[in-house]
Fold this protein.
Amino acid sequence: MSQAGAAPITAPGWTARPKDGVALVDCDVHHNFRHHEQLLPYLSTFYQEHMLDQGLHLGTYSNIPLRTNRTDLRGRPEKRDRTEIDHSGGLETLDSDATSGSRDFNYSLEFLQREHLDRWNIDYALLTGPPAFYAYSGLPDPDWAAALCRAFNDWTIEHWLGRDERVVNAIFVSPSDPAQAVAEIDRLADRKDTVAVLVPMETSMPMGNRFYHPIWEACERHGLPVISHVGGAGGANRTTPTPVGFPTYYMESRMSRPTVASAQATSLIVEGVFEKFKTLKVALIEVQQLWAVSVMWHLDADWRALRDQTPWLKRLPSEYFREHIRVGSQPLHEPERPEQLHQMLEMLHADETLIYCSDFPHFDWNDPVATFPKLSEHLHQRIFADNALEMLTL
Amino acid sequence: MARVIVAKVAEIPPGQRKIVVPFRGRAGIGVFNVAGSFYALRNICPHRSGPLCTGELSGRVTTDEPPSGDGKIPSVSGLGEILRCPWHQWPFEIASGRCLVNPEIRVATYEVTIDGDDVVVEYEDR
C-alpha cells in the first residue's frame, strides 16, 4: 500500500492523481523464463533426466503469431531474423527456445518494475506466468505436470518474489491430479506473497466436476481465489480449443475463448460448487466480458424451467455468479459506440464482477488509462482496485 | 360475491382437473382436485400468458447440498401438487398459486367450495 501514487509518472496520458490507499491492482501480469531448462535446478534428478531425455511431451500445434509481445519493449524495431523462427509458434509451446517474452527482451523483475509497475503506478501486480506453461495442465502424465508446476513455483519464488511488495503470486497447479495440486497449495499457501491459485482454463472436464473439488476445497480452506487464465490443455495437446475442432487462424482460437469461459462458469454454478464452497471465488481472465452477461441471463431463464435437475441451487444462477465469479477486464470489448461499453458494464454488474487485467507484456494488452472511457469514481475504484483487493484479500 | 357451479364432484376425481371456459375471460380457469382438496387457478401463466392449467403435474424436488457420491440423492415430495406451464415449464404450487422459481409472481387463485354434489367457484364480483 505504501506504493500508491509514489512512482514517477512517465506514461502518456496518465495523470498523476495521488491517492491514499490502493488505486491500481493488475490481476494479469505475465512473468516468464528464457528457456525451460532454467527449471532444471528445481526438478528432482528423475525429472531432470526426464526433461533432458524426453523433453516436455508437449504438443506442437499453435497458430499464435511470433509477435506475441509488445514490440516497443524489444528495444529494436527490426523484424525477427530467421534464427528466431521456430517450428511451432511463439507462445503455446516450451519445446524450443521460444517462450513468451524470452526472445524479445531479457524479462526480469527489474524489467517488469521499470516498464510496467513504476510507469503506471501499480500498487499490486499478480504474476500469471507464461501461458505456454498452462499447457502443462494437459500433459497426459499427471506426475510430470505436477513436478513442472512445483519447479515453476520454486523458480518464481527465487527470481521474482520477496524483493518488491507490489509483486504477488498465484500458485501454479495442474488440475490433472487434484491430490498433488492440493499438496502444492498446502506447501505454499502460507507465504505472504501467495494470494491466489492459478488453474489454466482449458481443463479436461468442466471445472464444476467433483473430480476437481479437492482443489476448490483447498483454495477455500486457505482463503485463496482461483485465477483461471485462458489456455491449458487446449493450447496444444489434449483438447481442441474450440468445440468444433482445430481452428486455422489465431483469431479463431481467440474467439473460442468466451465459449470456454461460459462452459466453466456454468459448470461451477450448476454443479453446486458455490453451495459447497461458500466463500470460494473464481476469476476467469483474458476471455472478454460479454459472455458473462449472456451466461447470467440465459442461466437464470433456463434455471426456472430446469431447476429440478439441480435442486441444490437455492438462488438464481446469476446471484452465484455475482458473488463468486470475477471477470478479467482484458481484452476489453471495443463496441461501435462508446456508450455501449457503459451499458455492458452495467449489465455485467462490473462494480462487483470486473477486475482490471493488463496482460502485460502481450501485444493485446490493455493499459489502465486509455482503455476505458471515463467512469464514475465509484466504478473506477471497484474495477481497478477494490474488486481485486477483496478477492485476493490483500 | 359471485358463485358459479363449475362441475359435479364426481367429474374431477383426485389427480384430475377440469378446464372451465369461459370464466371471467375466454382463457378460463383450471379446477384441480389435489388429493381430495379442490383449487382453481386462472388459466393464464403470469410468465408469458401460456395456457398454464393444461400443463403437467409434478412435485417438489429438494436437497440440502450438491451431490457428492455419498449415496444421498434429492427427494421428491408432494407429487401432483405442482403444475408446470406447458409453454416454458415454470412450476406453480396449485394450492397457493405461488411460482416456485420466481417469488415475485403468482397466478390468480379462486376460492373453491363443495356444496353437496357441486363444485362451486367463488369470486369477488366487482
